[in-house]
Amino acid sequence: MRYEGRMFRPPSEAYSLILQATVGCSHNHCTYCDMYRDKAFRVRDLHESLQDLEGAGQRYGDVQKLFVADGDALVMPTEHWLALLHRAFAVLNGLQRASCYATAKNLLEKTPEELRALSEAGLKLLYLGPESGDPTTLKRIAKGGTFEEHVEAAQKAHAAGMQISVITLLGAGGEDRTVEHAEGTAKLITAMDPEFLAALTLTVVPGTPIATLQERGKFVLPEIMSLLQELRTIVDQSRPTDAVFRTNHASNYLPLSGRLLHDRERILTVLDAALSGQIELRPEWFRGL
Ligand code: SF4
């Protein structure tokens, strides 16, 4: 496989084959994100991507999962996607499903028929990161999608037979919107009804627009205990039907996991213990982006 620049994938795709079929992110405006700032967005040449798949098919034995990068790979034209998916399932032994990052806009720009075709061809899981359900925060972080658009996008994915993994970002609202951010996010999770739910913690990366705002005193990252309180509110107030919940991303202070439907009380008990100082948090030096 050939890769350009830094590569990113969700923690749950650690054992997946990664195909870089797009380079960068077609949105590339979220104020906190530095993942693809050094890459001009483009769809990679189809022939090159097909060659990478052929090569992987010859080199690797069993490949069960394929993650298609980079930042919002769903944006690729549907014909391009279908060619890649058909070849992937033809050449990768044991392949069960493909997944990718997607934005609400990517989903809204595809027709229900296109999404159904992609799902039937094996694109079964989309990672969607609204980060917040608070309309003010969504605007401030330049997410490029509203609360309502994220709900509509989730409904379209589900109607096409795809699962969604929703990513939220603790601290995204800053100190002044910490309550609204947490409560709005819980509402958005309920409305999007994901199968998987992850919480990450905002790290202000030098060179990003949010870092500039922080330097000017216009953004203040909440204290650690406020971030944990945000997480508590999200766990307590969101009501997805049956979401697998994880905070195993390296950016978090407290790794947690469970099914919200069955494990909510246990997770809240752990969070309360952490909030009252009875549980040691991941040290700052151990955290990553
Ligand atoms: S959509 Fe995702 S990859 Fe693109 S800028 Fe926003 S957070 Fe970064």
What does this structure look like?
With 289 residues, this protein is α/β, with parallel strands linked by helices. The protein has one domain (11-286): Alpha-Beta Barrel (TIM Barrel), CATH 3.20.20.70. 39% of the residues lie in helices and 17% in strands. It has helices at residues 46-59, 78-91, 104-109, 112-120, 135-140, 147-159, 178-192, 209-215, 224-237, 260-275, and strands at 17-20, 22-23, 42-43, 65-69, 97-102, 123-131, 163-170, 196-201, 244-246, 257-259. The chain has an 8-stranded mixed sheet with strand order 1-4-5-6-7-8-9-10. Strands 2-3 form a two-stranded antiparallel sheet. Helix 1 (46-59) packs parallel to helix 2 (78-91), helix 2 (78-91) packs parallel to helix 4 and helix 7 (178-192) runs parallel beside helix 9 (224-237). The longest helix has 16 residues, at 260-275. The mean pLDDT is 95. The structure holds iron/sulfur cluster (SF4). Residues 25, 27-30, 33, 35-36, 71-72, 103, 129 line the site of iron/sulfur cluster.
What's the layout of helices and strands?
Elements: E1 17-20, E2 22-23, E3 42-43, H1 46-59, E4 65-69, H2 78-91, E5 97-102, H3 104-109, H4 112-120, E6 123-131, H5 135-140, H6 147-159, E7 163-170, H7 178-192, E8 196-201, H8 209-215, H9 224-237, E9 244-246, E10 257-259, H10 260-275
Parallel strand pairs: 1-4, 4-5, 5-6, 6-7, 7-8, 8-9
Antiparallel strand pairs: 2-3, 9-10
Helix pairs in contact: 1-2, 2-4, 7-9, 9-10
Bound molecules: iron/sulfur cluster.
